[in-house]
Specification:
The complex is a heterodimer.
Chain A (H helix, E strand, L loop, with lengths): L2 E5 L3 H12 L5 E6 L39 E4 L3 E5 L4 E4 L4 E3 L2 E4 L3 E3 L11 E3 L3 H11 L5 E4 L3 H12 L4 E5 L6 H4 L1 H13 L3 E4 L3 E6 L3 E6 L4 E3 L2 E4 L3 E3 L15 E2 L11 E3 L4 E5 L4 E4 L3 H17 L12 E6 L2 E7 L6 E8 L4 E8 L2 E8 L2 H12 L4 H9 L1
Parallel strand pairs in A: 1-2, 1-7, 2-3, 7-19, 9-16, 10-11, 10-16, 11-12, 18-20
Antiparallel strand pairs in A: 4-5, 5-6, 8-17, 13-14, 14-15, 20-21, 22-23, 23-26, 24-25, 25-26
Chain B lengths: L1 E4 L9 H5 L4 E3 L5 E3 L9 H10 L5 E4 L1
Antiparallel strand pairs in B: 1-4, 2-3
The chains are: A alpha/beta, B alpha+beta.
C-alpha cells in the first residue's frame, strides 16, 4: 500500500489532504494533528470566539460535510516529533512510527511568548482554540486588558475588547501599528481607528517586564511608565513549527525551504502554509506568508507537486492576500509592499471608513489596500496579477 | 450544477469573484450577486475553487 502523510491538521494540512484526494490519490492518506480538535478555522478566534458570539463548533473547517468522504486515517492529539528522511519515517509523540511514500509538511507556526512571562497567571498568547477560550473566559470578568504587540492579532483582540466594553491598552514597539505591513500613511489611519474606539495605544515603546503575585498586575514599559492590567494578551508574532525537523536533513531557513514549485530539499516531501518558505518566481524573492488564503492556495499547489513529482514544474506565484476585521472595517490587502513604494490614495471617505490605496514600484502596480471596498480589492488584485503598469493603474483610477 | 451562497455567513471578501467572475459578482454596494444560478458544466472547476477559497465557507456546490 502506498501512503501519503500530511503533518499538521489545520487549514493548510486539511486543504492539502482534500487536494490529494481531488487529484485522484486512492492510496492511504494520514492526517496528523497535535491539537485534539477536528481541523478548525483560526481567523474567528480573535473575533467572534473572543467576543463569545460563536460556539467552537462553528469553526469546524468541514462544517456540514464531515471528514468521511476523504477516507482519512486521522490522528489527532498526537505531535510529530521527528523525521527520518532516509527511511521515510515519522516518529510520533505517542511512541508510534509512521512510514510514508509522500509527505506534506503543514505544521504551521507557534506563537512567540515573552521571555519574562513565565508562570504568571492572566498572560496568554492567541494561536489555538484553547488559547481563545481561555482568554474569552477571563474577558467575562471584565478585566483591564493590555495587548502586547499591535499587529493583526493584537489589534483584533483590542477591537474585540472594545466591542465588549472592556478597557484596553495596546503596546507597540514601532512608531505606528502595522507600519511594516501597510506603510506610514495607512498605519497612521489604523492608529486613528483604534484611538477613535477608545484604545489606549502606546507606540514606540517595548514591554519590558510583567509584575504581579500569582497573576499579572502591571506591565512595565521601556519609557519608564507602566500599565495596570489583569489580563495580558501577547501578540508578538510566530515562529514556524520546524523544531521536529531538526536533524532530518531537510533544509530549514526561517521555515521549511521550498523551491518555486513547493518542493522541499528532499524528494517526495513538499510543504505548505505558515511553515513553508518558498521562492516566488515572479517577485524574485523568498517568502514565508502567514495568511489564510495563502495556506489554501499553497496547499493545493503542494499536493499537485507531490503527486506530479519532478515533472510538475508549474511555479507557485500567488498575489498574496490578507484581511483583518477591526470594528466595522474590513481591511484587505493584496500584493506586496515596501517602505519606499509609491502610494496613491484614490478613494477616501473618512466618515464611511472606506478607502482605496494603491502601491507602486518600478513602474508597476504592486499592491492594493482597501477599507470596506472589497470590489476594488478584487479588481486591483487581478490587475497586479496581470502586470498592470503604475501609470495605467492611476489612469484607470482617475478615469 | 448549482452554486449556493449562505448570505448569513458571507462577509463579502470577494474572492469568489476572482475565481469565477462569470458566476459571482461583488458590487459597489458591498453585496454579492449570483449571476448564474445554474452555471454550465464548463465552469465547475472555477466554482469549486471559489468554494474552497471562500474565507467564511459560505459557498456550496450542489449537483
Amino acid at each position: 500500500v502506498r501512503r501519503i502523510a500530511v503533518v499538521g491538521a489545520s487549514l493548510a494540512g486539511l486543504r492539502a489532504a482534500e487536494a490529494v484526494r481531488r487529484e485522484g490519490w486512492d492510496g492511504e492518506l494520514v492526517l496528523i494533528g497535535e491539537e485534539p480538535h477536528q481541523p478548525y478555522d483560526r481567523p474567528p478566534l480573535s473575533k467572534e470566539l473572543l467576543r463569545g458570539e460563536w460556539a467552537p463548533s462553528r469553526l469546524d473547517l468541514r462544517r456540514g460535510q464531515g471528514l468521511s468522504e476523504l477516507a482519512l486515517d486521522l490522528r489527532l492529539g498526537v505531535r510529530a516529533v521527528s523525521l527520518d528522511a532516509r527511511e521515510r519515517r515519522i516518529a510520533l509523540a505517542d511512541g508510534s512510527q509512521l512510514d510514508y511514500d509522500g509527505l506534506i509538511i503543514a505544521t504551521g507556526a507557534v506563537a512567540r511568548s515573552l521571555p519574562f512571562a513565565s508562570g504568571l497567571g492572566g498572560v496568554h498568547v492567541l494561536r489555538t482554540l484553547d488559547d481563545a477560550l481561555a482568554i474569552a473566559r477571563e474577558l467575562a470578568a471584565r478585566p483591564r486588558v493590555c495587548v502586547i504587540g499591535a499587529g493583526f492579532i493584537g489589534l483584533e483582540v483590542a477591537a474585540s475588547c472594545r466591542a465588549l466594553g472592556v478597557p484596553v491598552t495596546a503596546v507597540e514597539p514601532q512608531r505606528l501599528p502595522l507600519l511594516d505591513k501597510l506603510g506610514e500613511q495607512m498605519a497612521r489611519r489604523v492608529a486613528e481607528l483604534h484611538r477613535d474606539h477608545g484604545v489606549d495605544l502606546r507606540c514606540g515603546v517595548l514591554a519590558q517586564g510583567l509584575l504581579g503575585g500569582d497573576r499579572v498586575e502591571r506591565v512595565q514599559l521601556s519609557d519608564g511608565s507602566s500599565v495596570e492590567a489583569d489580563l495580558v494578551v501577547v501578540g508578538i508574532g510566530v515562529q514556524p513549527a520546524t523544531h521536529w525537523l531538526r536533524g532530518s536533513g531537510l533544509a530549514l531557513e526561517d521555515g521549511v525551504r521550498c523551491d518555486a514549485t513547493c518542493a522541499t530539499s528532499l524528494p517526495d516531501v513538499v510543504a505548505a502554509g505558515d511553515v513553508a518558505r518558498f521562492e516566488h518566481a515572479t517577485l524574485g524573492q523568498s517568502l514565508r506568508i502567514e495568511h489564510w488564503s495563502h495556506a489554501v492556495e499553497m496547499a493545493g499547489h503542494a499536493a499537485r507537486r507531490l503527486l506530479g513529482g519532478p515533472a510538475f514544474t508549474t511555479p507557485f506565484t500567488p498575489v498574496p492576500y490578507f484581511w483583518s476585521d477591526q470594528y466595522d472595517v474590513k481591511i484587505q490587502f493584496a500584493g506586496s509592499l515596501r517602505s519606499d513604494d509609491e502610494v496613491a490614495l484614490i478613494e477616501d471617505a473618512k466618515e464611511a471608513r472606506k478607502l482605496v490605496a494603491l502601491f507602486g514600484r518600478a513602474g508597476r502596480l504592486t499592491g492594493v489596500l482597501t477599507w470596506n471596498r472589497a470590489p476594488q480589492l478584487v479588481r486591483y488584485r487581478r490587475a497586479i496579477a496581470e502586470g498592470m503598469t503604475w501609470a495605467a493603474a492611476l489612469a484607470q483610477a482617475r478615469g | 450544477m448549482k452554486g449556493i451562497v449562505d448570505f448569513e455567513v458571507c462577509q463579502s471578501h470577494g474572492l469568489c469573484m476572482q475565481s469565477a467572475p462569470e458566476v459571482f459578482e461583488l458590487r459597489d454596494d458591498g453585496f454579492l450577486y449570483i449571476l448564474q444560478e445554474n452555471p454550465p458544466e464548463s465552469l465547475r472547476g472555477k466554482v469549486q475553487t471559489a468554494v474552497r477559497e471562500c474565507p467564511t465557507g459560505a459557498i456550496k456546490l450542489e449537483g
